[in-house]
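Lay summary. Proteins are chains of building blocks that fold into shapes, and those shapes determine what they do. In this project we predict the shape from the chain. Here is one chain we studied, written as its sequence of building blocks.
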Amino acid sequence: MKKIIFVLFAFLTFSSNAQTENIHLTNALVVGQLDKSDDRYLIEAALTELLTNSGIKATPSINILKVGNDSKILASDSIQNILKAKGFDTYILVSVRGFDKRFKLAKKQGTLLELLSEGHLFPIYRDEAASVSFEFFFYRNGVFVGTDLVKCGNISSKETVIKRFKKKIRKCIIRKWK
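And here is the predicted shape, written in a compact code that computers can read:
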């Protein structure tokens, strides 16, 4: 009985890790799910820059949506057809998962529309926080393909968050996403 439980545990562990190791990004629309528009712009611009520098065709959602529009519009058929015509079939949704704790990958894997509809109230920096965790969801052709969680520690300002974010994500792109 113990062997069966161990084998099942090992299988589940390896299958959850496999979600982020085989994404094979070639293109991406970067969607920052943050409440403040300046935080959203910073994260989308930083991630788009890193993806582009790694040879992955990328664009931020702020180039597609008008300021103040709801991000649910990105799940509409008309926008998806426009993006496909431009060569984009993969969405990367990035949000702040929380501060100062060790988080695990999210168990829920909703549809693209459900995730775009969720509200995210955390800013990228909070004065009393020593670290911030970012969560990434990957959708290709509207279907969930993986998730990743990146913790940026030793932060003291919004600028250090972006600096640590770029350093950590550069490694993720090379090791897991590309």
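What the prediction tells us: Residues 4-19 have pLDDT under 50 and may be disordered.
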